[in-house]
Amino acid sequence: MERQMKGLFYFYTMNIKFSMTVFWSILLGTTIVSILLSMMIVNPTYSMYFSFSIMVYIYSAIIGFHSVKDVLPYAVKVGATRKNIFLSMGIYFLGLALSQALILSVTHRIITSAIKYLDIQTYVLLDLASWLIDDSWLNQILIHTAIIFLLMIVMYIIGLLFYKYGLVGGGIVMGMTVLFMLVGIATGWLSDLFNSILSIIDRMFFIEMIGVTIVIYTLTWLLVRKLTLVR
C-alpha cells in the first residue's frame, strides 16, 4: 500500500507540474505587463485592478474537474486499488490547495511591497482573503487553502458524475443544481444565507470549511469504489 501510494503521488505531481509552471508564468507575466501599463496612466483618478486570487481559484477548479479524466483512468490502468486512489486523491487535493495558497500569498505580498516601494498609485492588487478578515499572512494562507480545496473537491465530484454517468447523468445533476440556485436567488434566501455567512466569518469559519470539505470528499467513495475504465 505504501509503495503504491508513493507511486500515485509521484504521478500526480508530475502530471500537474507542467500545467502549474505554465499557469504561474502566464499569471506573473500578465501582472508585470499590467503594472507597466498602469504606470503609463496619466490621470491619477483612473486605476487598474487585478486579482491573483480569482485567477488561482478558477485554475484550481479546472484542475479538480480535469483530474478525473487525466488521473483516474491511469491509476486504474496501473492496478491501483480503489481505496488507495480515494485516499491519495484526497491528500493530493489538500496538499495542492495548501501549496497554491502558499505561492499565492507569498507572491501577492512581494508584488504588493514592490508596488508600495515604487509608489505606483494607479495599480491595485486585490485579494479576497484581505477583504474577508484581518490581513495577516496566516489568515491569507488559511482562507486561500479552504476556498481552493472546496472548489477542487466540488469540481472533482462534478467530473466524477460526468465520467460515470455521461453527459446525461452529469447534465441532470448540473441542471438541478442551477435550478436550485435560481430558486434561491428568486426567493431571496440564497442572498440572506450569503449575508449571514459574511457576518460570522472568522478564522475558525475557514478551519470548519476545510473539515466540511473533507466530509464532502468522503462521498466520492460511492463513485470511486466501483470505478472502471469503461464508462
Gist of the model:
This protein has 231 residues and is mainly alpha-helical. It has 9 helices and 2 strands, in the order αβαααβααααα. It has a two-stranded parallel sheet with strand order 1-2.
What does this molecule look like?
This protein has helices at residues 2-38, 52-70, 72-77, 82-118, 128-132, 137-187, 189-200, 203-218, 221-224; strands spanning 48-51, 123-126. The longest helix has 51 residues, at 137-187. It has nine helices and two strands, in the order αβαααβααααα. Strands 1-2 form a two-stranded parallel ribbon. The protein has 231 residues and is mostly helical.
User: Uncertain regions: pLDDT < 50 for 5+ in a row?
Assistant: none
Order of helices and strands, N to C? Answer: HEHHHEHHHHH
Q: Average pLDDT, to the nearest integer?
A: 81
**Termini Cα gap:** 26 Å
Q: Strand count, sense and closure of the main sheet?
A: 2 strands, parallel
User: Which radius of gyration do the C-alpha atoms yield?
Assistant: 20 Å
Number of helices: 9
Structural class: mainly alpha
Percentage beta strand: under 5%
How many extended strands? Answer: 2
